Amino acid sequence: MTKDSKSNLSEKQGVSQPETTSKSAAQKIKLNRRKQVSTDTFIEKILEGDITFLSKAITLIESTNSKHQEKANTILNACMPHADKSIRIGITGVPGVGKSTFIEAFGKYLTSLGKKVAVLAVDPSSSINKGSILGDKTRMEQLVTDKNAFIRPSPSGTSLGGVAQKTKESILLCEAAGFDTIIVETVGVGQSETAVHAMVDFFLLLKLSGAGDELQGIKRGIIEMADAIVINKADGDNVKNAKIAKVEFNRALHLYPPKENGWQPKVMIASALNNSGIEDIYTMISEYISTTKKSGAFENRRNDQNKHWLYTTINDQLKKRFYENPKINELLQKEIINLEKGKTTPFNAANNLLNNTD
Amino acid sequence: MTKDSKSNLSEKQGVSQPETTSKSAAQKIKLNRRKQVSTDTFIEKILEGDITFLSKAITLIESTNSKHQEKANTILNACMPHADKSIRIGITGVPGVGKSTFIEAFGKYLTSLGKKVAVLAVDPSSSINKGSILGDKTRMEQLVTDKNAFIRPSPSGTSLGGVAQKTKESILLCEAAGFDTIIVETVGVGQSETAVHAMVDFFLLLKLSGAGDELQGIKRGIIEMADAIVINKADGDNVKNAKIAKVEFNRALHLYPPKENGWQPKVMIASALNNSGIEDIYTMISEYISTTKKSGAFENRRNDQNKHWLYTTINDQLKKRFYENPKINELLQKEIINLEKGKTTPFNAANNLLNNTD
Q1: Which residues pair with A183 in a beta bridge?
Q2: What confidence score (pLDDT) does residue B7 get?
Q3: How do residues B80-113 score in pLDDT, each as one tens digit?
Q4: Same domain, A118 and A178
Q5: A·B CB contacts under 8 A
Q6: Beta-sheet pairing, A181-186 with A117-122
Q7: B178-191: pLDDT as tens digits
Q8: Which residue windows are coiled coil (chains A, B) (predicted)?
Q9: Residue B56, domain extent
Q10: Which of B143, B136, B154, B147 is CA-nearest to residue B51?
Q11: Residue B289 falls within a domain, yes or no?
Q12: pLDDT grade, residue B130 (50/70/90)?
């Protein structure tokens, strides 16, 4: 078409004989078919244990694009019947405790037994500095080249809830891909241990031995969550201190009421450097799994965790909807000022706010 | 009118000359005026420190009748500017620890100093057996006859939130009535300590000395909340054990990170029977109050508590509205079954439920 043809007054050119099918319609069908095939391929490949497709599917889970999410959900739903068959182990510990080295040694031991190991992470802080735990794969250079290991950094996200949800869904995909041991690492920012604790079968706290007073500075609630405490870097001059720390932790654990499933949390010593203690730790975890599977506690814990995530997701969303309402937010600021001035009670203020959404 | 007049066919009697104002209208005005006067009287009497009216107003707070609640709110709002000036002390301990005897001894000591003491309670279990802590006033027979003391049993209710709200509002009325020390007792059912902790300036845990292993069996989180632990019944043969327990609790308290306000929780020994230790406990609480008032921590805590109650009330109500929706409830049961069968993820199930309220 020439420039002139833009005028409505200009004579229109005759159209040539149309093609039997319109180009755009053909393209749509083609795209659609490609998408269809693609999702099916994803599912097929994941169930075959193809790590490249597993990795791509997790990228879809982590995407904020709604089409990607839709696709991820289709894949996830198809994979669901093949998931849920692994052992999920959570590992936490402050930076410097030797998590990477420990996970590498532990993971290598597991693959040497013929197991397939996936290592995931929950680190809500990773969105801030764009770095993330496990992001630097060179930290586990032996495990990363192991064909029976799959290592995936923490998803980024603004809220722990979002990050945790993505990791939880990734666990299911890894399981569908045949990984029988899932390790979820967390650095323990905010409530991230609680989130990881709520998605694993066994929760392990890594500690260093210090100069006594081992319990000082441990975050509240962590001891209660731990199924085992492993004193890491028990090598060289540290061995003696590690043994002292073991006694102290054992005493501390006895101060807590026993776990509902009857398990008495264990304290163990390990050196990822010397590869010592790793086998014992795996034996202990295996014992825990077989005991709880026999008693039904294993399945109960998974059911409880699913319900926990169901209610947590709903409750978070209810609050989000309420507090992200601009009208509510404005009124809330006013009511908080009234509260501080003693002009209202918390209950009157709450009712005022709630009546604005009726 | 006769029985016959019931028939529509019967001739109607002529009406007599109407009165200048209708009887029902006059009655309405009269009732309304009585109500107006009554609320004003309530406020006036409460501010004068009249215990009978204070007691009646608390009954209105506790009522489930919406007219009573409206009236209670009017009274509460008028009393608000006169509230907030007392010291609020929470006291918890398992049954048998001697709470009543301790509160009586402590309360008598306070009134001997010229203080006015109100004793309230939070016991969510009281609705079940219709009994309630403090219900049996004879347990504090000296304090109950003290004109500077006011003792009120726990309100009954089906939820801790409801019971706690009523007690929190009663605190404000007691303060407006001139009570300068409010003691809130709880027996520690469910989360009731957390609720009481969130409405007091100082939280005191009563304990007995035993045969060692003092920390066994203490509910999770209680130690972290306590601003002081008082080992009660330290008399006769118990004195030695109490001293041992004191050492053990002191050691245990050092395992916890220091409080945000810098306060190091204290362990003390008391015998309500011998009236020993009571004065020291009051001195300690006074020190706490003056230190935190100077640093601003006192006001911060109250502000934080008010915000806590604001958010708690809103969040509870949001959940209540959602889960009490019969449609949601039905769908929830289905989704939980799907979850247990591994047919859905917690996140898919949650979204399904949430989309039903859009």
Answers
A1: A89, A119
A2: 43
A3: 888 878 999 999 988 888 898 999 999 999 999 9
A4: yes
A5: 123
A6: parallel
A7: 999 999 999 877 78
A8: none
A9: 24-82
A10: B147
A11: yes
A12: very low
